[in-house]
Amino acid sequence: MGPAAKFVTPGVLFILTLVFGFWLSRSGKPYHTLIFNIHKLIALAAVVVTAIQTFNALKIGERQPILIGLVIVIGVCAVALFVTGALMSAHKATGRATLTIHRIAPLLAVLAALGALYLLGGSA
Ligand code: HEM
């Protein structure tokens, strides 16, 4: 299995997380419990599967510094998403900044992931 193929499941889970995230936003406040829980649990599953596949890819592949840097960026984005998600759901941060971070982090993670996949593909 090529490096990109290993990330099909994480990619699908990530897209589902986005879909449920936008749906959750559109459903208004207070947050719809079922949509919220699905969004949160799929996000968790996406992070776990991505972490496992990334660990395996780094174990067998080349470990270029840029690749490690991109993986760290993805990890920081994941932490930012969980922290801002928890803050929004606990109604502790109702300001625009929290939602803005929650919107930008997925974008940044996708860009970093594309770069990482490109580097992994090159070393396979
Ligand atoms: C991989 C992780 C995650 C991704 C990619 C993600 C992505 C998104 C996206 C794209 C939205 C829609 C934002 C918009 O309307 O522009 C959203 C909304 C939301 N997400 Fe997440 N999310 C993730 C994890 C989480 C987690 C772990 C939580 C909770 C602990 C969470 C809580 C929320 C909440 C409460 C909203 C609604 C925000 C609002 O419009 O008021 N998210 N998410």
What does this 3D model show about the protein?
The protein is mostly helical. Helices cover 81% and strands 0% of the residues. The protein is built from four helices and no strands. 25% of the residues are buried. The model has no long low-confidence stretch (mean pLDDT 92). Bound molecules: protoporphyrin IX containing FE (HEM). Residues 17-18, 21-22, 24-25, 31, 39-40, 43, 46-47, 78, 81-82, 85-86, 88-89, 99, 102-103, 106 line the site of protoporphyrin IX containing FE.
Number of helices: 4
What do the pLDDT scores average to?
92
Q: How would a crystallographer describe the biggest sheet? A: none
Rough outline: elongated
Bound molecules: protoporphyrin IX containing FE
Query: Which stretches are poorly predicted, pLDDT < 50 over at least 5 residues?
Result: none
Q: DSSP strand (E) fraction?
A: under 5%
Task: Give the N-terminus to C-terminus distance in angstroms.
Answer: 10 Å
How much is the radius of gyration in Å? 15 Å
Q: What is the H/E order?
A: HHHH
- Care to count the β-strands? 0
The SS-based structural class is mainly alpha
Helix coverage percent = over 70%
Features:
124 residues, mainly alpha, elongated, binds protoporphyrin IX containing FE
Q: Care to give the gist of this entry?
A:
The chain is mainly α. It has helices spanning 8-26, 33-60, 65-89, 96-123.
